[in-house]
Structure formats: C-alpha cells, structure tokens
Amino acid sequence: YISDAQISIPGYITLRADRELKIGGGCVLYINKDVPITKQFTWSDRQTSLVTAFSEQKNLFFACVYRPPDTDETSYGECLTKLQAEINSIIEENEGRIPEIVIIGDFNLPNMDWESMTLPSRGSREVGPYYQTLEFVNENFVTQLVTTPTRGANILDLVFTNTPDYFANVITTDSKISDHRVVECTVAYNPMDNVENAKTED
Asked: What pLDDT was estimated at residue 201?
C-alpha cells in the first residue's frame, strides 16, 4: 500500500482511486490548494478507476480515468455511467449551468482514430469500449485533444474537454519514470485568476 504522504506534492491536494486487490493501476488528481473543491467523487473496482472533482467557484469539473487493457465492457460501462452521473448532478445543482469539463487518463483505446473519429471495425477485438467512449463523447460534446503517440505508436493517454479553444497547446514528451509519454497541456488563460479575484473581494 502506498500512503498519501508518499505521493503528496506540496501546495496540492491529493484525490486518488486505487484498484481493489490489485498492484498498480488506479488514478490520482492533484489540485492546487487555492482552488476550492466543492464536490469530489472516487470509485474503483478490480479493473477501472475514476476520480472527479468540481470547483463551483471556477465552474470547473475535473476527472481522471484509468481503464486497463482488456477491461470488460461492464466495468468500463459502470465507470462511464458514474462519470456521467457526476456531470449530470453538477448541472442540475447549478440550475442547468454546464461546467468546463476536463477529463484525462489512460483509456487504452489504441485503435481509435481521434482525428477522423473513426471506430475500429465490428470484427476488431474489444470493439465495445470504443462505442461506449464515442457515446460519452457525443453526449457531452467533448473533444479529444491528444494527437501524438503516448506509448509506442499508440495514443492511449487522452484529454477530453468541452472547451478546446481554451487549450493553446497539447504535446507529449518522454518520461524518465514511465513507458508512457507525458501529456503536457498549455491553457490560454490563467485558471487561478478568478480565485485571486475572489480573495481580493473577500
């Protein structure tokens, strides 16, 4: 077991979901302590993991997903159902106001062509999760931003958002600690601005 203290980053809160009875996998979100989190949710079974966080002040919804290779449709489907439920509840609680959505994670969907939104053929192995993902994408009007490989020749690590114009640049760089490349996103605005303004007004 790895404790929060072992993975903590000064100045950030740690939200994590570990896979039950499994070594490795799971996911974690690090959020600046100056960003007030109104609502958070974690879920994991022996396969898929999910962490979400919402800042009402910023109207920002963050989520991190880990879907291991060979995950069955039931586990991944439950993950997406819970993710959708969190988004829906936030919209309902905020009188129909849609948050800025940012969803990241290792989805292990190597056969998806994100540029053309082309699905693998129905004869392909494990085609179900691709259709599940596309349904979620269409339901929430989100765009997938990563266009360069993150492991080998495959795009496995993804970034979904309903505000793609806010992202000035998305690149992948080599990692010294993982066989996956690091996904780096540059946003076109400072997400801390509203927080600092709120502090000044208080």
From this structure: 44
